[in-house]
Write a structure and sequence with these properties.
The chain has 6 helices and no strands. It is mainly alpha-helical. It starts with 7 loop residues before the first helix and ends in a 22-residue tail after the last helix. About 5% of the residues have low confidence.
Length: 152
């Protein structure tokens, strides 16, 4: 039995791995977009996962995400200080509370599910609020840096 020359089999494996990163990037982007409309489902984490996977599998998707008016600032803030805006923290906290309220009103049996969800949300909120806010306030905290700053 002969073995393929060095490098011949590697290209196929690299291509398969690249497709895996691409699949993860698009799947997490889809979940992140859906999460915008579903209370209790985190958006930020899925968008950040999508950007991370895209950086390994699709430079085109990575650039699109980084330049997106909603997702770009989120990715930039995370990459430059692991920061989460106050607006995002408040929005996530309010949607988690709304989700708990809906669960409390609709789940009449198995109350342990509500307690488990509340514990998970409390841990997620505590972690999120422990992250620093980006420098600046108001709309400035969501702004991307200028591509060509004056005097450059």
């Amino acid at each position: 039995m002969t073995r393929p020359a060095a490098g011949q089999g590697d290209a196929g494996v690299r291509r398969l791995v690249q497709w895996g990163w691409l699949l993860l990037a698009y799947a997490s982007l889809a979940v992140g977009v859906i999460a915008i409309f579903i209370p209790g489902l985190p958006t930020t984490e899925f968008i950040l996962l999508s950007a991370w996977a895209a950086s390994r599998g699709s430079p085109r998707l990575q650039h699109w995400l980084e330049g997106h008016r909603l997702f770009g600032p989120m990715i930039y803030n995370w990459r430059h200080g692991r920061a989460v805006t106050i607006r995002a923290k408040l929005s996530a906290s309010l949607t988690m509370m709304l989700c708990l309220l809906i669960m409390g009103l609709t789940i009449h049996h198995h109350r342990w599910i509500i307690l488990l969800a509340a514990l998970g949300m409390a841990l997620g909120a505590a972690w999120m609020w422990s992250r620093p806010a980006p420098a600046g306030s108001g709309k400035a905290e969501n702004a991307l840096p200028e591509k060509n700053p004056p005097g450059a």
